[in-house]
Amino acid sequence: MTHDPASPIAGLHLTFDPKPSIKTRRALGAEINAFHARTMPLDSERFALLLRDDAGKLAAGLVGALFWAWLFVEALWVRDALRGRGVGRALMAGAEDHARTKDCHSAWLDTFQARDFYQQLGYERFGVLDDYPPGQSRHFMRKRLRSTPYSMAARELSVGAIIP
User: 46-105+145-162 in CATH: which number?
Assistant: First the structure.
């Protein structure tokens, strides 16, 4: 490495780890979360919507996360035999409904294969990484879930009006 951020600071040593363990990644994540807790408290919730067949085998599913009044669709998958039958659309609608009950104003996701599907659901592209993966583009998409965005100031004013 040509740039060593530790070189001007006594007692710090930079190392390169080509295969960081889950323990290392979790430790770094914990430090980032601790910083956010001090600067921008995080109220988060993870959830999954899972469709299983009679044998209990996964047929489709969605994993989502709610952060700072946004729904993030982390993963959506539908078994090949079920595609085109409204299953993905129903999972997305269920996730969006759940997010609305938790006061989320918007949703976002990223995709490189299903842009048209998400556009049909009302998502719009707000960013793109070309050649990620090579020869394709990763699209970042968002959708407004309610007509007015969440506003802490507005919420505080409405609470203040009710409770003197």
Answer: 3.40.630.30
